[in-house]
Amino acid sequence: MDYLEIEEKVAKMDITLPPPEPEADRQYYFIRKLQLWMEEKKKELGRPLTACITTFGCQMNARDSEKIIGIMEMIGYEMTDSEEADFVLYNTCTVRENANLKVYGRLGQLKKYKKKNPHMVIALCGCMMQEKVVVDKIKQSYRNVDIIFGTHNIFKLAELLSLKLLDRPESKKMIIDIWDGTTEVVEDLPNERKYSFKSGVNIMFGCNNFCSYCIVPYVRGRERSREPEDIIAEIECMVKDGVVEVMLLGQNVNSYGKTLEHPVSFAQLLERVEKIEGLERIRFMTSHPKDLSDELIEVMAKSQKICKQLHLPLQSGSTRLLKDMNRHYTKEDYLFLVEKIRRAIPDIALTTDIIVGYPGETEQDFEETLDVVRKVEYDSAFTFIYSKRTGTPAAAKEDQVPQNVVKERFDRLLELVQDISAKKTQKDVGTIQQILVEEQNQHDANLMTGRTGRNYLVHFPGNKDLIGKLVSVRLVESKGFYYMGERIEE
Ligand code: 5AD
Ligand code: SF4
């Protein structure tokens, strides 16, 4: 359903009756209740209420925040970047410790705003909230938080907000609603895309891989795929609304569809998405190397719409560590896979994730990682310092690598990655590429910024009318991570 259809359904809700049973209808009911409350509030205050949503972490969270903003806007909140808002929400990430620390810091700073505006509602959601220790700490030390919910019940936001604002406005009691897991995927709730012309699309939720260092399977629950019909319908609706590029999202898209009643492979899903008229570009992430099929490579190679870009997390080049990490591939398997992909799609851009300082990592292990980086020559790589996540098997390991050693290896890796990226971008200078224009350059209003199919950023002289359009640009100069270009008139 599109935004207007949902809006119509919401307007028809009769709030004198008890809430209806089906989950989406139930939420429309609470949105309606809050809309009417908002009308009153606006009159009383002489201004609309505002909401500030901050997102930490990955593309999944970014997509979840679009759903949150969709619900808030339908209720009638006005979005703002200022935390002096009537509703402030942090959609949190817990993949690495740093992200957690940032949230605590920001929460501390909110205290002064809440003093000024005692009716301010502070809400927390996302992966951090799925950890009991985190919720306990917030209950103890951050009493100004009003609502906490998790990764499995984002769709309940209107219901929780209604409980807070309409049923017990004076209560200081924190509303906490965290689920351990769910098999439910609630369709047809409003969402507000950040960009009008491109969007993320969830194709599955959760992860079953339990890589030894990773907390995601614990906070995002077991893998569940959306029905292909629902995915296609959502994308068709987006395309009607002006979207030309989609990013299919899942922790491990290569195992998409295995748990459906009528199993569908990821490659088959891609073939169906490709057929959607008006859609120009398809991207996806993340691919686990152990599940990347020949069928997928074949579909990518012959596709006109799937971008020639693949994010293929390596994590480590050491077979010994990969085994310990529970990754189910060896260094040689990985290199063989890359070779196979490059043979089928020679101009593909490859990116990766690498962890430095995994417990027990020796200089020899690290050299293996550098070796893979040199052999694969990634277009770019996200490099992470290992972060100990309580509750994961790796956190219990005793041979944690000293910080100074990790730092020194991290710097060496980064230098290598950057050298290779710079060399690779140099190669395409002079070529003409199709780019999707995304925004005005933040530093120079005469420049527009877009992305090539291989996901490189290009800045070029142009005007705002081009936003959301695919245009041809000659890459004039490489700047390491991005290009300066000039438009070629078709
Ligand atoms: N420490 C450091 N990096 C991690 N990642 C996941 N868990 C950890 C951790 N405990 C990285 C992996 C993954 C990316 C999203 O985050 O490289 O691919
Ligand atoms: Fe974490 Fe591994 Fe799942 Fe990725 S595949 S989310 S690294 S457990």
TrEMBL record:
Binding residue positions for [4Fe-4S] cluster 2: C207, C211, C214
Binding site for [4Fe-4S] cluster 1: C58, C93, C127
Gene Ontology molecular function: tRNA-2-methylthio-N(6)-dimethylallyladenosine(37) synthase activity
Catalysis: reaction(s): N(6)-dimethylallyladenosine(37) in tRNA + (sulfur carrier)-SH + AH2 + 2 S-adenosyl-L-methionine = 2-methylsulfanyl-N(6)-dimethylallyladenosine(37) in tRNA + (sulfur carrier)-H + 5'-deoxyadenosine + L-methionine + A + S-adenosyl-L-homocysteine + 2 H(+)
UniProt entry tagged with the keyword Calcium: no
CC cofactor note: Binds 2 [4Fe-4S] clusters. One cluster is coordinated with 3 cysteines and an exchangeable S-adenosyl-L-methionine.
Sequence ranges assigned to domain Radical SAM core in this UniProt record: 193-423
PANTHER family xrefs: CDK5 REGULATORY SUBUNIT-ASSOCIATED PROTEIN 1, MITOCHONDRIAL TRNA METHYLTHIOTRANSFERASE CDK5RAP1
Name listed for the protein in its UniProt record: tRNA-2-methylthio-N(6)-dimethylallyladenosine synthase
Organism: Jutongia hominis
Lineage per the UniProt record: Bacteria, Bacillati, Bacillota, Clostridia, Lachnospirales
Originating gene: miaB
